[in-house]
Amino acid sequence: MGAAGVALDAPTAAPDAPTAPEVVPEVVCEATVNSIRVQWKVQLDPRVHAVPVKAELTPCPVPQGSERMMPASGPEGAISGTCDFHFLYAGQDHTFRLFVGEGEPGTFSFEGARPTLELRIRTAACGKAVEPRIARMLPADMWPTYVGPEHELGEWLGLCPEDMVWTFSPSFDVLRSLWLNACFTLPSRHSPIAQCPNPIRRYCLDLTKRQPWLRNKKVRRHKSDFRLTVNANFRATFQQCERTHREAGRGSWITPDLIEGLDRCRKEDGELKVYSIELWEKSTGQLAAAIMALSVGDIFHDYTTATMLRDGRSPGAILTKVVGHLLTEAGYTLWYWGFKNPYMGEYDGQYGGLELRNDLDFWPRWRQAREMSCLPGNVDLAKRVPPGGGASHGGLDLAVI
């Protein structure tokens, strides 16, 4: 990150203003094109063990950052903290203020208090990954939602004021970080800019409701016609999804680089699990439907689906119901679908469909899932289905479920 910041002498408080303990601040400040991080440390009087602290940044278009804190002093009688602010405008001057007071949080008022620390900080003119000549062509209101290699992605993405963030010619490391932080990527063959869905309201299925997945009429009537596999041929299945979308006139964001990146994550088999789920018609050997997905901990996210065989049996719907059953059996608790589309309304009732607020509801669940993904015995759909196979062998014959 680039750094910019100048500490100003804190003026002496007026006699009637709330008093603060005598302090000596230390500070490190970093700024990107749309974010500011301030790491601070304040040495307290040895007799003081905890104080109320407030931090603020102005201007700050999205309410965020530290409100009131009550940090306890360390062994050397110092308190410290890190304040992050995101979704700022490029090349804009900001003022950071840190207030350190006395007394309990409920009794001390910061109104009228003088800042212990005051910094002037300017955000960078453009993103680290964006060439200056291209950056000059981009409108100013794009920069607050840019993400790039200079960012440490995390739960702050849940505070985004828009449904999309974007990145520029992302490297594999940036792509993987986005996927691990609940932002899928929609690249374009004709532009270096990739849009990344980050919905303010995310449509999910609560898999703890023990939905009656296999009691669906078409599942019961036609399941014996099909066999299901997981990662039978990831690349070929993904490419078939791309062709199906294109032939239907919907265009496609599925690019060779995207396939390569997700397949690399699949082979790494680490914190991020990646899957192709294939439904095969046994009598013809034809690929009838597919779901492309990833998972982190106990949250499953499908990023595209395709139905190649369209007939009265509704293979795509059968695949959705069977996958819901398998996810529940495997130990997943949430199935994230993305933006809510009208057809999803049928899943609102008995199938546990609901919209989660990105900041208050979804991201706390995602954080827990990431913590779970690093533990032994992490949830993994591939362990629920026999490996390999196709229409005639391997995988799972739906006649037996």
Automatic annotation (TrEMBL):
GO MF, one example: leucyl-tRNA--protein transferase activity
Keywords: Acyltransferase, Cytoplasm, Transferase
Domain of life: Eukaryota
A cellular component annotation (GO) from this entry: cytoplasm
InterPro entries documented for this protein: Acyl_CoA_acyltransferase, Leu/Phe-tRNA_Trfase, Leu/Phe-tRNA_Trfase_C
GO terms under biological process: protein catabolic process
Signal peptide: none
Region (Disordered): 1-20
Pfam families assigned: Leu_Phe_trans
Name of protein: Uncharacterized protein
Annotated organism of origin: Effrenium voratum
